[in-house]
Structures
1.
Amino acid sequence: MDVLLLSRLQFAAATFFHFIFVPLTLGLSLLLAIMETKYVRTGDETYRQMARFWGKIFLVNFAVGVVTGITLEFQFGTNWARYSKYVGDVFGSLLAIEASVAFFLESTFIAVWAFGWKRLSPKAHAVSIWLVALASNISAYWILTANAWMQNPVGYVIRGGRAELANFWDIISQSFAIHEIVHTLSAAYILSGFFVAAISGYYLLKKQHMDLFKRSFAIGISMALIFSLVEVVQGHINGSEVAKYQPTKLAAMESFWETRDHAPQYLFIIPDEKNERNKIELGKLPSMLSMLAYHNPAATVKGLKDFPKDERPPVTITFGAFRLMIGLGFLFPVIAFWGWIKRKTIEEHPRFLKILLYILPLPYLAIAAGWTVAEVGRQPWVVYGLVKTKDAVSIIDKTQVMISLAGLVLLYSVIGLIAAYLIVKFIKQGPESTTT
Protein backbone atom coordinates (compact mmCIF):
# COMPACT_ATOMS: atom_id res chain seq x y z
CA MET A 1 0.00 0.00 0.00
CA ASP A 2 1.22 3.49 -0.84
CA VAL A 3 0.54 6.80 0.92
CA LEU A 4 -2.37 7.59 -1.41
CA LEU A 5 -4.29 4.38 -0.69
CA LEU A 6 -3.57 4.52 3.04
CA SER A 7 -4.70 8.13 3.25
CA ARG A 8 -7.89 7.33 1.34
CA LEU A 9 -8.58 4.41 3.68
CA GLN A 10 -8.00 6.61 6.70
CA PHE A 11 -10.32 9.34 5.46
CA ALA A 12 -12.95 6.78 4.46
CA ALA A 13 -12.80 5.09 7.87
CA ALA A 14 -13.18 8.42 9.66
CA THR A 15 -15.98 9.57 7.37
CA PHE A 16 -18.07 6.42 7.58
CA PHE A 17 -17.71 6.24 11.36
CA HIS A 18 -18.53 9.95 11.72
CA PHE A 19 -21.62 9.56 9.58
CA ILE A 20 -23.00 6.76 11.73
CA PHE A 21 -23.84 9.40 14.32
CA VAL A 22 -24.46 12.59 12.35
CA PRO A 23 -27.75 11.62 10.64
CA LEU A 24 -29.40 10.63 13.91
CA THR A 25 -28.20 13.87 15.50
CA LEU A 26 -29.73 15.92 12.68
CA GLY A 27 -33.07 14.13 12.76
CA LEU A 28 -33.38 13.82 16.54
CA SER A 29 -32.73 17.55 17.00
CA LEU A 30 -35.79 18.28 14.86
CA LEU A 31 -37.89 15.58 16.53
CA LEU A 32 -36.96 16.87 20.00
CA ALA A 33 -37.99 20.38 18.96
CA ILE A 34 -41.36 19.02 17.79
CA MET A 35 -41.86 17.10 21.05
CA GLU A 36 -41.03 20.11 23.22
CA THR A 37 -43.30 22.34 21.15
CA LYS A 38 -46.14 19.89 21.74
CA TYR A 39 -45.40 20.04 25.48
CA VAL A 40 -45.50 23.85 25.47
CA ARG A 41 -48.77 23.92 23.52
CA THR A 42 -50.60 21.19 25.44
CA GLY A 43 -48.94 21.11 28.85
CA ASP A 44 -49.03 17.32 28.56
CA GLU A 45 -46.20 15.95 30.71
CA THR A 46 -45.87 12.92 28.42
CA TYR A 47 -44.21 15.04 25.73
CA ARG A 48 -41.70 16.35 28.25
CA GLN A 49 -40.85 12.81 29.32
CA MET A 50 -40.53 11.91 25.67
CA ALA A 51 -38.09 14.75 24.99
CA ARG A 52 -35.94 13.85 28.02
CA PHE A 53 -35.77 10.19 26.97
CA TRP A 54 -34.76 10.82 23.36
CA GLY A 55 -32.59 13.75 24.45
CA LYS A 56 -30.14 11.48 26.27
CA ILE A 57 -29.60 9.45 23.09
CA PHE A 58 -29.27 12.68 21.13
CA LEU A 59 -26.52 13.97 23.43
CA VAL A 60 -24.45 10.80 23.03
CA ASN A 61 -24.73 11.03 19.24
CA PHE A 62 -23.87 14.72 19.28
CA ALA A 63 -20.76 14.19 21.42
CA VAL A 64 -19.38 11.38 19.25
CA GLY A 65 -20.21 13.30 16.07
CA VAL A 66 -18.22 16.31 17.27
CA VAL A 67 -15.17 14.26 18.26
CA THR A 68 -15.03 12.35 14.98
CA GLY A 69 -15.76 15.43 12.88
CA ILE A 70 -12.74 17.29 14.27
CA THR A 71 -10.34 14.55 13.18
CA LEU A 72 -11.78 14.71 9.67
CA GLU A 73 -10.94 18.40 9.36
CA PHE A 74 -7.41 17.84 10.68
CA GLN A 75 -6.77 15.31 7.90
CA PHE A 76 -6.98 18.10 5.33
CA GLY A 77 -3.73 19.38 6.82
CA THR A 78 -2.04 16.10 7.68
CA ASN A 79 -2.93 13.73 4.84
CA TRP A 80 -4.18 16.12 2.15
CA ALA A 81 -1.89 19.12 2.46
CA ARG A 82 -1.48 19.59 -1.31
CA TYR A 83 -5.26 19.66 -1.66
CA SER A 84 -5.55 22.28 1.07
CA LYS A 85 -2.78 24.37 -0.48
CA TYR A 86 -4.40 24.31 -3.92
CA VAL A 87 -8.08 24.88 -3.06
CA GLY A 88 -7.96 26.06 0.55
CA ASP A 89 -9.04 29.59 -0.37
CA VAL A 90 -12.38 28.20 -1.58
CA PHE A 91 -12.91 25.07 0.49
CA GLY A 92 -11.53 26.54 3.70
CA SER A 93 -13.90 29.50 3.65
CA LEU A 94 -16.93 27.19 3.70
CA LEU A 95 -15.61 25.13 6.62
CA ALA A 96 -14.64 28.30 8.48
CA ILE A 97 -18.22 29.62 8.27
CA GLU A 98 -19.56 26.27 9.47
CA ALA A 99 -17.25 26.26 12.49
CA SER A 100 -17.50 29.92 13.46
CA VAL A 101 -21.25 30.36 12.98
CA ALA A 102 -23.24 27.10 12.95
CA PHE A 103 -21.13 25.01 15.31
CA PHE A 104 -20.77 27.73 17.96
CA LEU A 105 -24.50 28.40 17.88
CA GLU A 106 -25.20 24.67 18.12
CA SER A 107 -22.74 23.95 20.93
CA THR A 108 -23.82 26.97 22.97
CA PHE A 109 -27.52 26.22 22.94
CA ILE A 110 -27.11 22.48 23.36
CA ALA A 111 -25.53 23.28 26.72
CA VAL A 112 -28.40 25.63 27.53
CA TRP A 113 -30.86 22.90 26.61
CA ALA A 114 -29.06 20.05 28.40
CA PHE A 115 -28.67 21.93 31.70
CA GLY A 116 -31.74 24.12 31.52
CA TRP A 117 -34.57 21.69 32.26
CA LYS A 118 -35.22 23.23 35.70
CA ARG A 119 -33.68 26.62 35.03
CA LEU A 120 -35.66 27.76 31.98
CA SER A 121 -39.33 28.18 31.33
CA PRO A 122 -40.86 25.54 29.01
CA LYS A 123 -41.02 28.09 26.17
CA ALA A 124 -37.41 29.18 26.58
CA HIS A 125 -36.30 25.56 26.78
CA ALA A 126 -38.19 24.74 23.59
CA VAL A 127 -36.62 27.73 21.85
CA SER A 128 -33.16 26.47 22.84
CA ILE A 129 -33.69 23.07 21.18
CA TRP A 130 -35.14 24.73 18.08
CA LEU A 131 -31.93 26.79 17.86
CA VAL A 132 -29.89 23.59 18.24
CA ALA A 133 -31.90 21.95 15.43
CA LEU A 134 -31.52 25.03 13.24
CA ALA A 135 -27.77 25.25 13.89
CA SER A 136 -27.26 21.51 13.31
CA ASN A 137 -28.91 21.70 9.93
CA ILE A 138 -27.11 24.94 9.03
CA SER A 139 -23.86 23.17 9.90
CA ALA A 140 -24.83 20.35 7.55
CA TYR A 141 -25.64 22.93 4.88
CA TRP A 142 -22.10 24.39 4.88
CA ILE A 143 -20.36 21.03 5.01
CA LEU A 144 -22.49 19.62 2.20
CA THR A 145 -21.97 22.79 0.16
CA ALA A 146 -18.23 22.27 0.53
CA ASN A 147 -18.61 18.67 -0.64
CA ALA A 148 -20.82 19.77 -3.53
CA TRP A 149 -18.09 22.17 -4.62
CA MET A 150 -15.72 19.20 -4.80
CA GLN A 151 -18.31 17.39 -6.91
CA ASN A 152 -18.96 20.37 -9.19
CA PRO A 153 -16.45 23.22 -8.74
CA VAL A 154 -17.82 26.69 -9.57
CA GLY A 155 -17.14 30.27 -8.51
CA TYR A 156 -13.33 30.07 -8.61
CA VAL A 157 -10.40 31.27 -10.71
CA ILE A 158 -6.92 29.81 -11.11
CA ARG A 159 -4.43 32.42 -10.01
CA GLY A 160 -0.82 31.94 -8.96
CA GLY A 161 -1.03 28.20 -9.48
CA ARG A 162 -3.97 27.68 -7.08
CA ALA A 163 -7.75 27.99 -7.01
CA GLU A 164 -9.04 31.23 -5.50
CA LEU A 165 -12.54 32.29 -4.58
CA ALA A 166 -14.15 34.42 -7.28
CA ASN A 167 -17.91 34.27 -6.71
CA PHE A 168 -19.13 33.07 -3.31
CA TRP A 169 -22.80 33.24 -4.35
CA ASP A 170 -22.22 30.82 -7.25
CA ILE A 171 -20.84 28.26 -4.80
CA ILE A 172 -23.59 28.41 -2.19
CA SER A 173 -26.48 28.68 -4.65
CA GLN A 174 -25.52 26.15 -7.32
CA SER A 175 -28.17 23.52 -8.01
CA PHE A 176 -25.78 20.64 -7.34
CA ALA A 177 -25.30 21.86 -3.77
CA ILE A 178 -29.00 22.43 -3.13
CA HIS A 179 -29.92 18.94 -4.36
CA GLU A 180 -27.12 17.30 -2.37
CA ILE A 181 -28.27 19.08 0.78
CA VAL A 182 -31.91 18.04 0.34
CA HIS A 183 -30.89 14.48 -0.51
CA THR A 184 -28.60 14.07 2.50
CA LEU A 185 -30.87 15.75 5.05
CA SER A 186 -33.84 13.69 3.85
CA ALA A 187 -31.79 10.53 4.37
CA ALA A 188 -30.93 11.69 7.90
CA TYR A 189 -34.60 12.33 8.69
CA ILE A 190 -35.59 8.92 7.31
CA LEU A 191 -33.01 7.22 9.52
CA SER A 192 -34.10 9.21 12.58
CA GLY A 193 -37.77 8.49 11.97
CA PHE A 194 -37.18 4.76 11.70
CA PHE A 195 -34.87 4.82 14.74
CA VAL A 196 -37.53 6.46 16.92
CA ALA A 197 -40.25 4.18 15.54
CA ALA A 198 -38.18 1.02 16.05
CA ILE A 199 -37.13 1.81 19.64
CA SER A 200 -40.71 2.84 20.41
CA GLY A 201 -41.76 -0.53 19.01
CA TYR A 202 -39.35 -2.23 21.43
CA TYR A 203 -41.28 -0.78 24.36
CA LEU A 204 -44.65 -1.45 22.79
CA LEU A 205 -43.67 -5.11 22.43
CA LYS A 206 -42.80 -5.12 26.14
CA LYS A 207 -46.11 -3.32 26.85
CA GLN A 208 -44.35 -0.64 28.88
CA HIS A 209 -45.00 3.14 28.79
CA MET A 210 -47.61 2.46 26.13
CA ASP A 211 -49.01 5.98 25.78
CA LEU A 212 -45.61 7.65 25.54
CA PHE A 213 -44.20 5.26 22.98
CA LYS A 214 -47.35 5.11 20.85
CA ARG A 215 -46.99 8.87 20.46
CA SER A 216 -43.26 8.54 19.80
CA PHE A 217 -43.96 5.88 17.21
CA ALA A 218 -46.50 8.09 15.44
CA ILE A 219 -44.07 11.03 15.31
CA GLY A 220 -41.15 8.88 14.14
CA ILE A 221 -43.02 6.91 11.47
CA SER A 222 -44.60 10.12 10.14
CA MET A 223 -41.15 11.65 9.66
CA ALA A 224 -39.88 8.47 7.99
CA LEU A 225 -42.85 8.41 5.61
CA ILE A 226 -42.69 12.09 4.63
CA PHE A 227 -38.99 12.12 3.88
CA SER A 228 -38.83 8.67 2.26
CA LEU A 229 -41.34 9.98 -0.29
CA VAL A 230 -39.32 13.19 -0.65
CA GLU A 231 -36.19 11.09 -1.18
CA VAL A 232 -37.71 9.06 -4.01
CA VAL A 233 -38.62 12.22 -5.93
CA GLN A 234 -35.45 14.10 -5.06
CA GLY A 235 -33.27 11.09 -5.82
CA HIS A 236 -34.50 11.13 -9.41
CA ILE A 237 -33.70 14.85 -9.65
CA ASN A 238 -30.28 14.21 -8.13
CA GLY A 239 -29.63 11.57 -10.78
CA SER A 240 -30.32 14.15 -13.50
CA GLU A 241 -27.80 16.48 -11.84
CA VAL A 242 -25.19 13.73 -11.90
CA ALA A 243 -25.90 13.09 -15.60
CA LYS A 244 -25.42 16.79 -16.32
CA TYR A 245 -22.29 17.48 -14.28
CA GLN A 246 -20.61 14.07 -13.71
CA PRO A 247 -21.17 11.86 -16.77
CA THR A 248 -18.40 9.44 -15.79
CA LYS A 249 -20.13 8.79 -12.46
CA LEU A 250 -23.44 8.18 -14.24
CA ALA A 251 -21.79 5.65 -16.56
CA ALA A 252 -20.18 3.87 -13.60
CA MET A 253 -23.45 3.87 -11.63
CA GLU A 254 -25.10 2.00 -14.51
CA SER A 255 -22.03 0.05 -15.71
CA PHE A 256 -22.71 1.67 -19.09
CA TRP A 257 -19.85 1.23 -21.57
CA GLU A 258 -21.06 2.00 -25.10
CA THR A 259 -22.26 5.50 -26.04
CA ARG A 260 -25.71 5.33 -27.61
CA ASP A 261 -29.11 6.92 -27.85
CA HIS A 262 -32.21 5.20 -26.46
CA ALA A 263 -29.88 3.93 -23.75
CA PRO A 264 -31.40 0.98 -21.85
CA GLN A 265 -31.23 0.45 -18.12
CA TYR A 266 -30.59 -2.92 -16.51
CA LEU A 267 -32.02 -3.77 -13.12
CA PHE A 268 -28.98 -5.86 -12.32
CA ILE A 269 -25.55 -6.30 -13.90
CA ILE A 270 -22.51 -8.28 -12.86
CA PRO A 271 -19.81 -5.97 -14.25
CA ASP A 272 -16.32 -7.00 -15.27
CA GLU A 273 -13.75 -4.29 -14.58
CA LYS A 274 -11.22 -5.77 -17.01
CA ASN A 275 -13.49 -6.74 -19.89
CA GLU A 276 -16.89 -5.13 -20.17
CA ARG A 277 -17.93 -7.73 -22.77
CA ASN A 278 -18.01 -10.35 -20.01
CA LYS A 279 -20.63 -8.58 -17.89
CA ILE A 280 -23.96 -10.31 -17.18
CA GLU A 281 -27.07 -8.16 -17.74
CA LEU A 282 -30.52 -8.86 -16.32
CA GLY A 283 -33.85 -7.00 -16.48
CA LYS A 284 -33.39 -4.76 -19.53
CA LEU A 285 -35.60 -1.64 -19.64
CA PRO A 286 -35.38 -0.13 -23.16
CA SER A 287 -34.59 3.62 -23.33
CA MET A 288 -35.03 3.95 -19.56
CA LEU A 289 -31.53 5.29 -18.81
CA SER A 290 -31.92 8.03 -21.44
CA MET A 291 -35.33 8.89 -20.00
CA LEU A 292 -34.24 8.99 -16.36
CA ALA A 293 -31.03 10.88 -17.01
CA TYR A 294 -32.19 13.42 -19.60
CA HIS A 295 -36.02 13.11 -19.59
CA ASN A 296 -35.87 12.10 -23.23
CA PRO A 297 -36.03 8.43 -24.34
CA ALA A 298 -33.96 9.27 -27.44
CA ALA A 299 -31.20 11.11 -25.56
CA THR A 300 -27.60 9.99 -26.02
CA VAL A 301 -25.82 8.67 -22.94
CA LYS A 302 -22.04 8.66 -23.03
CA GLY A 303 -20.44 5.32 -22.17
CA LEU A 304 -17.29 4.63 -20.17
CA LYS A 305 -15.32 3.72 -23.29
CA ASP A 306 -15.50 7.33 -24.43
CA PHE A 307 -13.66 8.53 -21.33
CA PRO A 308 -9.91 8.08 -20.81
CA LYS A 309 -9.11 4.98 -18.74
CA ASP A 310 -7.40 7.07 -16.08
CA GLU A 311 -10.60 9.10 -15.58
CA ARG A 312 -13.02 6.20 -15.08
CA PRO A 313 -14.32 5.51 -11.56
CA PRO A 314 -14.26 2.00 -10.05
CA VAL A 315 -17.31 0.47 -11.71
CA THR A 316 -18.16 -2.55 -9.55
CA ILE A 317 -18.19 -0.66 -6.23
CA THR A 318 -20.10 2.31 -7.65
CA PHE A 319 -22.65 0.16 -9.45
CA GLY A 320 -23.25 -2.12 -6.47
CA ALA A 321 -23.58 0.72 -3.96
CA PHE A 322 -25.97 2.57 -6.25
CA ARG A 323 -28.23 -0.47 -6.68
CA LEU A 324 -28.26 -1.04 -2.92
CA MET A 325 -29.15 2.60 -2.23
CA ILE A 326 -31.94 2.60 -4.82
CA GLY A 327 -33.40 -0.69 -3.63
CA LEU A 328 -33.56 0.48 -0.02
CA GLY A 329 -34.84 3.88 -1.13
CA PHE A 330 -37.94 2.25 -2.62
CA LEU A 331 -38.37 -0.12 0.33
CA PHE A 332 -38.50 2.58 3.01
CA PRO A 333 -41.71 4.37 1.91
CA VAL A 334 -43.52 1.02 1.71
CA ILE A 335 -42.56 0.12 5.28
CA ALA A 336 -43.21 3.64 6.56
CA PHE A 337 -46.63 3.83 4.91
CA TRP A 338 -47.68 0.50 6.40
CA GLY A 339 -46.60 1.68 9.85
CA TRP A 340 -48.31 5.04 9.43
CA ILE A 341 -51.71 3.62 8.54
CA LYS A 342 -51.47 1.26 11.55
CA ARG A 343 -50.07 3.87 13.95
CA LYS A 344 -53.25 4.20 16.07
CA THR A 345 -53.38 0.47 16.78
CA ILE A 346 -49.71 -0.34 16.28
CA GLU A 347 -49.49 -2.29 19.55
CA GLU A 348 -51.78 -4.87 17.93
CA HIS A 349 -49.16 -5.62 15.23
CA PRO A 350 -46.20 -7.20 17.05
CA ARG A 351 -44.83 -8.82 13.89
CA PHE A 352 -44.43 -5.42 12.22
CA LEU A 353 -42.77 -3.99 15.35
CA LYS A 354 -40.28 -6.86 15.33
CA ILE A 355 -39.58 -6.26 11.63
CA LEU A 356 -38.83 -2.60 12.40
CA LEU A 357 -36.22 -3.63 14.97
CA TYR A 358 -34.61 -6.11 12.58
CA ILE A 359 -34.37 -3.62 9.71
CA LEU A 360 -33.06 -0.72 11.82
CA PRO A 361 -29.53 -1.12 10.33
CA LEU A 362 -30.89 -0.65 6.78
CA PRO A 363 -31.18 3.19 6.84
CA TYR A 364 -27.56 3.31 8.05
CA LEU A 365 -26.58 0.97 5.23
CA ALA A 366 -28.46 3.08 2.67
CA ILE A 367 -26.64 6.24 3.78
CA ALA A 368 -23.26 4.47 3.65
CA ALA A 369 -24.08 3.23 0.14
CA GLY A 370 -25.07 6.74 -0.92
CA TRP A 371 -21.79 8.22 0.24
CA THR A 372 -19.92 5.40 -1.49
CA VAL A 373 -21.61 6.31 -4.77
CA ALA A 374 -20.87 10.01 -4.25
CA GLU A 375 -17.21 9.64 -3.31
CA VAL A 376 -16.01 6.51 -5.11
CA GLY A 377 -18.00 7.50 -8.19
CA ARG A 378 -16.13 10.82 -8.28
CA GLN A 379 -12.73 9.14 -8.55
CA PRO A 380 -10.06 9.64 -9.74
CA TRP A 381 -10.90 13.27 -8.95
CA VAL A 382 -10.83 14.84 -5.51
CA VAL A 383 -12.30 17.98 -7.13
CA TYR A 384 -14.16 16.79 -10.20
CA GLY A 385 -12.37 17.77 -13.39
CA LEU A 386 -9.92 20.00 -11.52
CA VAL A 387 -7.67 18.08 -9.11
CA LYS A 388 -6.96 14.36 -9.12
CA THR A 389 -6.79 12.53 -5.82
CA LYS A 390 -3.21 11.40 -6.44
CA ASP A 391 -2.16 15.05 -6.77
CA ALA A 392 -3.85 16.08 -3.51
CA VAL A 393 -2.20 13.72 -1.01
CA SER A 394 0.54 14.94 1.33
CA ILE A 395 4.16 14.04 0.67
CA ILE A 396 4.81 12.01 3.82
CA ASP A 397 6.22 8.63 4.78
CA LYS A 398 3.66 5.84 4.50
CA THR A 399 4.72 4.51 7.92
CA GLN A 400 3.25 7.63 9.50
CA VAL A 401 -0.06 7.02 7.78
CA MET A 402 -0.07 3.33 8.71
CA ILE A 403 0.45 4.18 12.38
CA SER A 404 -2.18 6.93 12.38
CA LEU A 405 -4.65 4.69 10.52
CA ALA A 406 -4.20 1.88 13.04
CA GLY A 407 -4.51 4.35 15.93
CA LEU A 408 -7.62 5.90 14.42
CA VAL A 409 -9.33 2.52 13.93
CA LEU A 410 -8.46 1.49 17.50
CA LEU A 411 -9.61 4.78 19.02
CA TYR A 412 -12.83 4.88 17.02
CA SER A 413 -13.58 1.28 17.96
CA VAL A 414 -13.32 2.19 21.65
CA ILE A 415 -15.44 5.33 21.17
CA GLY A 416 -18.01 3.35 19.19
CA LEU A 417 -18.28 0.67 21.87
CA ILE A 418 -18.70 3.30 24.60
CA ALA A 419 -21.34 5.14 22.57
CA ALA A 420 -23.21 1.90 21.83
CA TYR A 421 -23.09 0.95 25.51
CA LEU A 422 -24.48 4.32 26.59
CA ILE A 423 -27.24 4.34 23.97
CA VAL A 424 -28.34 0.80 24.88
CA LYS A 425 -28.15 1.70 28.57
CA PHE A 426 -30.35 4.78 28.13
CA ILE A 427 -32.83 2.85 25.99
CA LYS A 428 -33.14 0.10 28.60
CA GLN A 429 -33.51 2.63 31.42
CA GLY A 430 -36.61 3.97 29.74
CA PRO A 431 -38.24 7.36 30.30
CA GLU A 432 -38.11 9.11 33.66
CA SER A 433 -41.25 9.27 35.74
CA THR A 434 -43.11 12.55 35.96
CA THR A 435 -42.00 12.93 39.57
CA THR A 436 -38.27 12.60 38.81
Note: The first strand starts at residue 156 and ends at 159.
2.
Amino acid sequence: MIKITSDLALDEAELTFSFVRASGPGGQNVNKVSSAVELRFDVARSSSLPDALKERLKKLAGRRLSDEGVLLIDAHRFRTQGLNRKDALSRLIALLQAAAIEPKIRKATRPSRASREQRLQTKRKASLIKQTRRGNLSAAD
Protein backbone atom coordinates (compact mmCIF):
# COMPACT_ATOMS: atom_id res chain seq x y z
CA MET A 1 0.00 0.00 0.00
CA ILE A 2 1.19 3.47 -0.95
CA LYS A 3 0.26 6.13 1.61
CA ILE A 4 -1.25 9.24 0.01
CA THR A 5 -2.68 11.05 3.04
CA SER A 6 -3.22 10.05 6.66
CA ASP A 7 -6.54 8.37 5.82
CA LEU A 8 -5.99 7.44 2.15
CA ALA A 9 -3.80 4.69 0.70
CA LEU A 10 -3.40 3.30 -2.81
CA ASP A 11 -3.02 -0.38 -3.60
CA GLU A 12 0.19 -1.04 -5.56
CA ALA A 13 -1.61 -3.70 -7.61
CA GLU A 14 -3.62 -0.93 -9.31
CA LEU A 15 -0.45 0.55 -10.84
CA THR A 16 1.14 -0.70 -14.05
CA PHE A 17 4.72 0.18 -14.92
CA SER A 18 6.11 -0.29 -18.42
CA PHE A 19 9.64 0.55 -19.46
CA VAL A 20 10.42 2.09 -22.84
CA ARG A 21 13.41 3.65 -24.53
CA ALA A 22 13.85 7.29 -23.71
CA SER A 23 14.54 9.95 -26.30
CA GLY A 24 17.09 12.72 -25.98
CA PRO A 25 20.79 12.86 -25.10
CA GLY A 26 22.65 9.88 -23.71
CA GLY A 27 24.68 8.49 -26.58
CA GLN A 28 24.47 4.79 -27.37
CA ASN A 29 22.96 4.14 -23.94
CA VAL A 30 19.65 5.60 -25.16
CA ASN A 31 19.45 3.09 -28.01
CA LYS A 32 20.17 0.07 -25.81
CA VAL A 33 18.46 0.61 -22.46
CA SER A 34 14.75 1.01 -21.72
CA SER A 35 15.10 3.52 -18.91
CA ALA A 36 11.98 5.65 -19.39
CA VAL A 37 8.93 4.68 -17.35
CA GLU A 38 5.24 4.83 -18.24
CA LEU A 39 3.05 4.63 -15.16
CA ARG A 40 -0.58 3.72 -15.78
CA PHE A 41 -3.28 4.06 -13.15
CA ASP A 42 -6.91 3.25 -13.93
CA VAL A 43 -8.71 6.03 -12.07
CA ALA A 44 -12.19 5.01 -13.23
CA ARG A 45 -11.93 1.44 -11.90
CA SER A 46 -9.90 2.17 -8.78
CA SER A 47 -11.42 0.84 -5.57
CA SER A 48 -8.95 2.76 -3.37
CA LEU A 49 -10.26 6.23 -4.22
CA PRO A 50 -13.58 7.81 -3.22
CA ASP A 51 -15.77 9.16 -6.04
CA ALA A 52 -15.34 12.83 -5.06
CA LEU A 53 -11.55 12.47 -5.22
CA LYS A 54 -11.80 10.77 -8.62
CA GLU A 55 -13.73 13.75 -10.00
CA ARG A 56 -11.19 16.25 -8.68
CA LEU A 57 -8.36 14.08 -10.04
CA LYS A 58 -9.95 14.03 -13.50
CA LYS A 59 -9.94 17.84 -13.54
CA LEU A 60 -6.35 18.09 -12.30
CA ALA A 61 -4.95 15.40 -14.61
CA GLY A 62 -6.06 17.16 -17.79
CA ARG A 63 -4.71 15.52 -20.94
CA ARG A 64 -2.75 12.93 -18.97
CA LEU A 65 -6.08 11.15 -18.45
CA SER A 66 -7.41 9.08 -21.36
CA ASP A 67 -11.06 8.82 -22.40
CA GLU A 68 -11.22 5.41 -20.67
CA GLY A 69 -10.17 7.01 -17.37
CA VAL A 70 -6.54 5.78 -17.34
CA LEU A 71 -3.96 8.19 -15.98
CA LEU A 72 -0.61 8.04 -17.82
CA ILE A 73 2.55 9.51 -16.34
CA ASP A 74 5.76 9.49 -18.41
CA ALA A 75 9.05 9.75 -16.54
CA HIS A 76 12.31 10.03 -18.49
CA ARG A 77 14.19 12.71 -16.59
CA PHE A 78 16.87 10.35 -15.26
CA ARG A 79 19.16 7.83 -16.95
CA THR A 80 18.20 4.88 -14.75
CA GLN A 81 15.01 2.87 -14.57
CA GLY A 82 14.90 2.98 -10.78
CA LEU A 83 15.09 6.76 -10.52
CA ASN A 84 12.52 7.22 -13.28
CA ARG A 85 10.19 4.77 -11.51
CA LYS A 86 10.52 6.72 -8.25
CA ASP A 87 9.95 9.98 -10.13
CA ALA A 88 6.76 8.69 -11.77
CA LEU A 89 5.47 7.38 -8.44
CA SER A 90 6.23 10.63 -6.61
CA ARG A 91 4.45 12.62 -9.35
CA LEU A 92 1.39 10.36 -9.01
CA ILE A 93 1.39 10.78 -5.23
CA ALA A 94 1.70 14.58 -5.57
CA LEU A 95 -1.24 14.63 -8.00
CA LEU A 96 -3.36 12.48 -5.68
CA GLN A 97 -2.46 14.65 -2.67
CA ALA A 98 -3.51 17.76 -4.60
CA ALA A 99 -6.81 16.08 -5.54
CA ALA A 100 -7.38 15.01 -1.92
CA ILE A 101 -7.65 18.63 -0.80
CA GLU A 102 -11.34 19.52 -0.78
CA PRO A 103 -11.99 23.03 -2.09
CA LYS A 104 -13.60 25.43 0.37
CA ILE A 105 -17.17 26.32 -0.46
CA ARG A 106 -17.55 30.08 -0.59
CA LYS A 107 -20.33 31.46 1.55
CA ALA A 108 -21.90 34.60 0.13
CA THR A 109 -21.56 37.48 2.58
CA ARG A 110 -22.46 41.14 2.47
CA PRO A 111 -19.76 43.77 2.76
CA SER A 112 -19.62 45.45 6.17
CA ARG A 113 -20.59 49.07 6.65
CA ALA A 114 -16.95 50.01 7.32
CA SER A 115 -15.73 48.32 4.11
CA ARG A 116 -18.43 50.10 2.04
CA GLU A 117 -17.43 53.41 3.60
CA GLN A 118 -13.74 52.72 2.93
CA ARG A 119 -14.46 51.87 -0.72
CA LEU A 120 -16.42 55.11 -1.19
CA GLN A 121 -13.64 57.10 0.50
CA THR A 122 -11.07 55.57 -1.87
CA LYS A 123 -13.28 56.44 -4.85
CA ARG A 124 -13.61 60.05 -3.64
CA LYS A 125 -9.84 60.33 -3.27
CA ALA A 126 -9.23 58.91 -6.78
CA SER A 127 -11.83 61.30 -8.20
CA LEU A 128 -10.17 64.25 -6.52
CA ILE A 129 -6.77 63.28 -7.92
CA LYS A 130 -8.24 63.06 -11.42
CA GLN A 131 -9.98 66.43 -11.05
CA THR A 132 -6.72 68.10 -10.12
CA ARG A 133 -5.02 66.55 -13.13
CA ARG A 134 -7.76 67.85 -15.38
CA GLY A 135 -7.23 71.35 -14.08
CA ASN A 136 -3.49 71.16 -14.79
CA LEU A 137 -4.01 70.04 -18.37
CA SER A 138 -6.40 72.91 -19.10
CA ALA A 139 -3.95 75.50 -17.77
CA ALA A 140 -1.10 74.11 -19.91
CA ASP A 141 -3.07 74.44 -23.16
Note: The longest strand covers residues 36-42.
